[in-house]
Amino acid sequence: MKAFRRFLARTPFYGVYKSLGHYPDYWYWKLRGEPIRSPHLLKQRTVREYAARYGLRVLVETGTYYGEMVAAMKNRFAEIHSVEFDSALAQRAAKKFSRSPHVHIHGGDSQKLVPELLKGLKEPALFWLDAGYYGWAGLQGDKQRLTSELEAILKDARYQHVILMDDARGLNGQNGSPTVPQLKQRIEAEFPGRSVEVKYDILRITPDALSRA
Ligand SMILES: C[S@@+](CC[C@H](N)C(=O)[O-])C[C@H]1O[C@@H](n2cnc3c(N)ncnc32)[C@H](O)[C@@H]1O
Fold it and tell me: What's the pTM?
């Protein structure tokens, strides 16, 4: 099965194969009593829910991977930016979404690209931070990457964005990462008018009032 999956991952059908698994994955997760690691369908629902709640039309994702979130959100957002460090994955995604001019795949490190993307935004955005902040496929990564991206987004003087970060269980105080209460305390003190909470392994940073400049 593993070999088959590895083979499929090299073909253009991998996205379809993965999306077929979303519903069984979701129900298997429910059957197991909703363990901490949440299924992709729930993540998609959360992204949609926050976009609707805050009237957001722009999605910025860190970590494109096989473009599952982009594919699921393609018809929901007017503009999508997704950043991928692995150049083969970035090229593959750029090709996959080449017929959707509102989808922009950016190859590179999210820590460098998030501040650049912020400068180009013309309205508040929904950020889906999902770039393996606690190590990904052997990439050790910069421990400060998450904090530096969060700060760049929260310090944006023009717009108050909404931030969702996946795998919040990684915020456990180990290996230089803050804990959720530490991060919450710091964000709510430094950026008054923002609330921080974790639900279903997703960290949610929301502005009390969403301003459009
Ligand atoms: C969990 S996957 C993303 C899944 C995707 N967001 C989705 O919902 O379908 C994490 C991705 O982050 C990428 N990544 C890791 N470090 C990164 C970095 N510094 N900048 C951008 N992408 C990075 C990995 O290569 C991997 O493709």
Answer: 0.91
Pocket-testing residue among 65, 91, 126, 166, ligand 1, by greatest number of atoms within 8 A of Cβ: 65
176, with CB counted inside 10 A (0-12, 13-18, 19+), is: exposed
Is any ligand 1 atom within 6 A of the Cβ of residue 44?
no
Which ligand 1 atom is at minimum distance from the Cα of 142?
Answer: 19
> What tens digit of pLDDT does each residue of 51-102 get?
999 999 999 999 999 999 999 999 999 999 999 999 999 999 999 999 999 9
CATH superfamily, region 36-207: Vaccinia Virus protein VP39 (3.40.50.150)
